[in-house]
Amino acid sequence: MKVGIYYNKNHLKENLKYIEEIESFFKPNGIKTNIVSTPDELDGLDVLLVLGGDGTILTVASECARRYVKILGINYGHLGFLTEFEQERITDALKLICNGNFATKNRIMLEISYADKKFYALNDFVIQRSTGGQNFSNTVSLNAEIDGVTVDNYSADGIIVSTSTGSTAYSLSAGGSVLAPDLNAFILTPICAHSLHSRPVVFNANSVVTVNSLSPKTQLNVVVDGKILDTVSGNARFTVRKSDFVAEFISRGDKDFFDKLLIKLNIWSK
């Protein structure tokens, strides 16, 4: 088995001791480890250990999915919805890999395409007004269609199209519902819509969403899994569908999503 280690580079000093612990634990078990810094270094790996929070996992999730590399997250961040273990349980995580007695959970992803570009997202795709410098815009006018049928025309700060996994992220903050991660569904959530009837819409993940810009002179930010990847203007048209790839996460096999939800969102604690 080949295992990679990926960590948040902003916390190098804190992670060094854990990296050493991981390498020394795996060596007697004949498991080779490599530090991963670029997507190409994921080639040939069976498992990627990710040290960090949800943001760190999101930076590599789509690249892992495209290479069929399993992800095991160890939380050194804040929420850690996507991580399976907290940092004090790192030994349990390493034992799980060594004995191979683990389950896996597949998380569906988004495929976003426009013009000649294509991106993949585990959490969400956001098209939103630009807030930078001369490109600053107020509300934007967007049309959303599901399977060719208009859902609504929005005057808003933007639109979020989220997977069930991403429903606990930006979409939740914008008023969207929480979707169980094994649900084959997406949610379309307007951001600060200037309307009393514009509400989040949950729909089948096998449907295709199209978002059309109705403001040709307005600058729009293209945000994928929390990162601004592009800024566009004109009559932009975005197509969002379920990706052929899935993100595969190593799991202990327990079903603790709602327990984790309550704890992570500080609604209730043990």
Describe the structure.
This protein is of the alpha+beta class and 270 residues long. It is 19% helix and 41% strand. The strands form 3 sheets. The chain has a 6-stranded antiparallel β-sheet. Strand 15 and strand 16 form a beta hairpin. It is elongated.
Averaged pLDDT, please?
89
The biggest sheet, with number of strands, parallel, antiparallel or mixed sense and barrel status, is: 6 strands, antiparallel
Structural class of the helix and strand makeup? alpha+beta
Name the poorly predicted regions: none
> Can you list the strand order of the major beta sheet?
7-6-17-14-9-10
H/E element order = EHEEHEEHEEEEEEHEEEEEEH
Task: Please provide a brief summary of the model.
The protein has 270 residues and is of the alpha+beta class. Helices cover 19% and strands 41% of the residues. The protein is elongated and about 60 Å long.
Question: What key attributes describe this structure?
Answer:
5 helices
List strands and helices in order, with pairings.
Blueprint: E1 2-7, H1 12-26, E2 32-35, E3 47-52, H2 54-67, E4 70-75, E5 85-86, H3 90-99, E6 103-114, E7 117-121, E8 124-129, E9 140-146, E10 149-156, E11 158-163, H4 170-173, E12 185-191, E13 201-204, E14 209-213, E15 220-224, E16 227-232, E17 237-251, H5 257-264
Parallel strand pairs: 1-2, 1-3, 3-4, 4-5
Antiparallel strand pairs: 6-7, 6-17, 8-11, 8-15, 9-10, 9-14, 11-12, 12-13, 14-17, 15-16
